[in-house]
Amino acid sequence: MIELNKLETASEMLKAIAHPVRIAIVGMLDDDKKLSVTEIHEALKIEQAVASHHLSILKNKGVLLSERSGKNCYYSLKHQRLSQIVACIDKCQE
To answer: Residue 46 in contact with residue 21, Cβ under 8 Å?
Structure first.
């Protein structure tokens, strides 16, 4: 049986991902990719502030890691298995 605190953490992570923009971000970061805010907002065709907002939510809930390099901040998945959630969602749409 999974411990209650692990279930609560997993629940919070899933709630954080449960938004179209955030699902797209998680999908973009599969295969150990590291992308900057600029790369993400340009690829999704959204404002940089909007991308930063969603990235902050994902980071605060333990979905993403961030790494600063000069003026840029690069984001990656904290757990690569999270990208399987996006793959599962995609298959459910078939």
So the answer is: yes
DSSP state of 32: T
Handedness of CA 85, 57, 10, 36 (dihedral sign): positive
Q: Give per-residue pLDDT as tens, 29-60.
A: 998 999 999 999 999 999 999 999 999 999 99
Q: How many C-beta atoms lie closer than 10 Å to residue 5's C-beta?
A: 8
H or E element, residue 60 = helix 48-60
Neighbouring CB atoms inside 10 A of 87's CB total: 11
Question: Domain boundaries in the chain?
Answer: 4-92
Which residue type sits at 33? K
Architecture of domain 4-92: Orthogonal Bundle (1.10)
